[in-house]
Amino acid sequence: xxxxxxxxxxxxxxxxxxxxxxxxxxxxxxxxxxxxxxxxxxxxxxxxxxxxxxxxxxxxxxxxxxxxxxxxxxxxxxxxxxxxxxxxxxxxxxxxxxxxxxxxxxxxxxxxxxxxxxxxxxxxxxx
Length: 127
Prior knowledge:
Helices cover 64% and strands 3% of the residues. The chain has helices at residues 9-29, 35-53, 68-88, 95-114; strands spanning 7-8, 115-116. The model has no long low-confidence stretch (mean pLDDT 90).
């Protein structure tokens, strides 16, 4: 499941902290009118900060509890959810939150796919 992408784990962690803070500030920065988009943005920001802060084997973690595979699963599910949420939850007619959620969903998906979660020394030996 864990691939060897070009993005180091430490960069992944810092990006997720910044994106988590951006989700918390987005309703004010981008003037969300939809209450569901505002609440969802705040909840996702908290989820991202907690997930990043509690993942084991991540250099940016504060508490090493959550397995990395669970972190990756949360990232992938969250990315897909962000892309479809405006349409499923009814705020697709409001451009600022719709665009914000979709762009960050695609970005989070690319980040999860492109992160090198295993160290070079952890690679399995070639036959």
